[in-house]
Amino acid sequence: MNLEQLLSKKVKEAVASIYDQTLPSVEFQPTRKDFEGDITVVVFPMLRYIKGNPVQIGNQIGEHLKTELDEVIGFNVIKGFLNLVIGDAYYTSFFDSIKDSNTYGRHSVENENAILVEYSSPNTNKPLHLGHIRNNLLGYSVAEILKASGNKVYKTQIINDRGIHICKSMLAWQIYGNGETPEGTGLKGDKLAGIYYVKFDQVYKTEVKKLIEEGKDKATAEREAPMLLKAQEMLRKWEAGDAEVVELWKKMNGWVYKGFDETYANLGVNFDKLYYESETYLLGKDVIAEGIANGIFYRKEDGSVWIDLTEEGLDEKIVLRADGTAVYMTQDIGTAIQRVKDFPDIGGMVYTVGNEQDYHFKVLFLILKKLGYSWAQHLYHLSYGMVDLPEGKMKSREGTVVDADDLIDEMTNTAAKISQELGKLDGYSEEERQKLYRIIGLGALKYYILKVDPKKRILFNPEESVDFQGNTGPFIQYTYARIQSILRKADLGTKHLTDKQADGIALHPKEKEIIKLLESYPETVKLAAENYSPALIANYTYDLVKEFNSFYQQVSILGEPEEKIRVFRVQLAKKVGEVIKSAFQLLGIEVPLRM
RNA sequence: GGCCUCAUAGUUCAACGGAUAGAAUAGAAGUUUCCUAAACUUUAGAUCCAGGUUCGAUUCCUGGUGAGGCUACCA
Question: Please, which positions of strand B sit below 7 A from a protein CB?
Answer without folding.
Answer: 3-7, 12-16, 18-20, 23-26, 34-41, 55-56, 68-75
